[in-house]
Amino acid sequence: MTKSVLLELSATPEKFLEKGGKALQGESVGCLYQYLETKKLLDGETVSYPRVIGERDPNNPFHWRWAFNWKEKINGAWKGKSIGSIPPGTVTMIRTLQQERATRENIIAFIKKAKTKKPSPKLDVCTNFENTKIKPVLPNNAPIAVVLFAGGGGIEAGMVEAGIRPVIAVEFDPTKPELSRAIALNHHCNFSECGCRVVQLTVQEVARLGFAGFPRRPDYLHASPVCANFSQAHTAKAGKGEETADDLTAAIAVAEAIRQLQPRVFTLENVPRYQNSQSFAAILETLESYRYLINYSVVNMADFGLPQARRRLVLVASRGFQVALPTESKSCGWYEAIAHLIPAMADSHLLPKQQQALEKFLAGNAPTPLLIERVGGRSQSKYKPGHLPCNTILRSHFTDHKGCNRSKFADIWLPDGTVKSLSIQGAAILQGFPSWYEFPPETATAGSIIGYSVPPSFASQLLMSAQSYSYVGNS
Length: 475
Prior knowledge:
single chain; alpha+beta; Rossmann fold; 3 domains; seven-stranded mixed beta sheet; 14 helices; 16 strands; 21% strand; SAM-dependent_MTases_sf; DNA (cytosine-5-)-methyltransferase; C5-Methyltransferase
């Protein structure tokens, strides 16, 4: 329970970071220092902010408040001045400026810019789906990104929404060459105007070629290694998913990309079980050896406004500054996200198992819109009431075991008895795709793009969070 707080606040410098910092107070160079804010609660307890779980780390800039002070000679007398509440993500850059003997004026100007930088607005799928009809126009100086295991292009769509230009996307599945070519063609349709080139080779093959033609030191590098052997769906179907040689060589290729390209920010997305793999450990080891600051966690993307329950491992690593994962936002039910599309969806009828699921729900609940899967439903409920996010969307929902189109993959039951077939457009919104993204007419290809993709709405939030810190290094 949150405790009430009295309006009593003190901010006392605890420690100067520069050697001889106190001696510099009479000069004009200035000093960066960390401090704590102390608040007295109504119950008499005194707490320090920022709040930290466990022991406060003296080397973690996010465990402290930050300020910069200096003295100016005015009318022959030294006057003290200071700037407080400096964003912790800028501390590393300020230290660098000090080491490079930047002038006090330049350091102060940089701090003021950092303090006035407004974070990019979050993409709220529920309220903003009508605002994504027009594709953003990227400026010539937009940050650039390279994408490995691009899948259906969801991460690239999120990049464009975040103002980042994807310049190379690597995607090829040798077990599904025709599907890979179809996805590459659709990728070209959506991102060629951004200057994005699709490389139809495996990431391992690109690594063997030394990433020839790839930009060095791109702003962003993203990887979503193939997750089949780590997914719960694979485990449920085949007993236990085992890490394979292909998984390890893919991770080694990602590590080689980090070594050779040395991006400012590296991001990774995969299923939760990937964090326990040798593959993930190899990537972490490389990031640590190149002194990236790493932050990763398993998140449910429904907690970030996606109208879909989707648990994924998400990592963000950066050089010279630390990036936090995006903050959680308002949750969204599937019905709220696609209600405007339902009247135009094709009529349908429920299969016997769907009818059984409906009757089971109505036996103990009042009628409400239900999204009922036609396939799946082994490990989770086959239906979802409208106020809840839908189940995780998978490629297998759209194709059968032979890779052929499913004419229908989920149905919407309305309280008046109407049954509608969920459309590709509706599934795309549930996956967080912007309205400007163009899908191919074939259900299997479109469904594969949706199922393979990082949800663009979450990707944009992750990258916007990184943007709010990474601009520091460009100053």
